[in-house]
Amino acid sequence: xxxxxxxxxxxxxxxxxxxxxxxxxxxxxxxxxxxxxxxxxxxxxxxxxxxxxxxxxxxxxxxxxxxxxxxxxxxxxxxxxxxxxxxxxxxxxxxxxxxxxxxxxxxxxxxxxxxxxxxxxxxxxxxxxxxxxxxxxxxxxxxxxxxxxxxxxxxxxxxxxxxxxxxxxxxxxxxxxxxxxxxxxxxxxxxxxxxxxxxxxxxxxxxxxxxxxxxxxxxxxxxxxxxxxxxxxxxxxxxxxxxxxxxxxxxxxxxxxxxxxxxxxxxxxxxxxxxxxxxxxxxxxxxxxxxxxxxxxxxxxxxxxxxxxxxxxxxxxxxxxxxxxxxxxxxxxxxxxxxxxxxxxxxxxxxxxxxxxxxxxxxxxxxxxxxxxxxxxxxxxxxxxxxxxxxxxxxxxxxxxxxxxxxxxxxxxxxxxxxxxxxxxxxxxxxxxxxxxxxxxxxxxxxxxxxxxxxxxxxxxxxxxxxxxxxxxxxxxxxxxxxxxxxxxxxxxxxxxxxx
Length: 500
Hints:
Elements: E1 12-15, E2 47-51, H1 62-76, E3 79-83, H2 91-94, E4 99-102, H3 112-123, E5 127-130, H4 142-148, H5 154-161, E6 167-170, E7 184-186, H6 193-202, H7 205-212, H8 219-243, E8 247-250, H9 255-263, E9 268-271, H10 278-287, E10 300-303, E11 316-317, E12 341-345, H11 356-364, E13 371-375, E14 390-392, H12 398-401, E15 407-410, H13 414-423, E16 427-429, H14 436-446, E17 449-451, H15 459-467, H16 469-483, H17 488-494
Parallel strand pairs: 1-6, 1-8, 2-3, 2-4, 4-5, 6-7, 8-9, 9-10, 10-11, 12-13, 12-15, 13-14, 15-16, 16-17
Helix pairs in contact: 5-17, 6-8, 8-9, 8-10, 13-16
């Protein structure tokens, strides 16, 4: 971000990760899609569609990537079908698959009808994974950019509202769509994040196994994003040289921002966005960059986690603000129910069990005196007979829905966790790959929720979720703690006052 406050010139550049491996990110606002077809897979069948452009038009090792996905399918019990035909993106065909994997997209584009069918599929709960040059797919589509890319940054909004100019610097698809209308400096042009991620994991198979099991800590993400940052550190350095900012703001996985700032003797502010210690995450990322680069300590560290959730985390606290992805809250969720309301949000990551929590809740619901609202499930469960106390809805802004909820069951994303904590709502987190196991443990250790694998969820667990006074008390304590954290507007006027 670059910012300038008048009449005195003051600038800051904020750098975000150059590309994003998207695992079910909520889309932004857009036109309502066509209806998705009801899923047609059987109870024991898990099918995944792998889509890419013609092999002879790709710069990436598409065949190797396909082989890797097939191997994962064989080892984990799901069937893989590969296609280069955009016509496969129709409502009836997509209904056969639990998830869609986009690889390199050179030489192929979905038409409007095909994209509409895919949009309906994703909004109905279909899984999506984008790797390799998926970030270059559908370049003219605002919806697909939202699926892959960025979302508004509260601190950037606060800086702009305070009279500063703001420039977001990034690369690849993350630079293709200015978040909240901000100008973007593209540092890399088309950026092949997927090749780096895939190569890093395939060359470290044991680490891949640990990552999929949620036991890799910061090791896997450190290797992947160190390699990413190696690719655009020079461009970031050149940008800082041209702009001569007063401060550079960057994410923990964007070590190139810290490197560029250090090379020009400009202060760097670390903006946390995880449930890890963000300073540690930055250190791990920079420490694996090649050649090895020594950077000074951050001029300031902004963390969005309350002290009691991540004890000992370094930095200046800044209140996390919820983001609902532009969706509208259904009228039925705007008022409290006559009995406890439990929201259920499932993972959109393709693969076995991605929606198993829905089946589990539907099975157990008749035993519980509560109302269950299944988010992003209206199309997924179309045609199924649901218990009287269960209803499925489409996309809904979770922060708003939590205002009248008694609890939430979800898969462990940091945003959902912080939204539930901000609302003082107990949560049941199902551990999984990547950071999900770490995040679930953080919630359980704080006493603000439960960490229970889907297969172990039973009626006793669900009753405890809504009846346990200790869970509600702890959640309320964290909500009070978050409310006391300085808002981004305050950070913009205090922390950033020393720069310039």
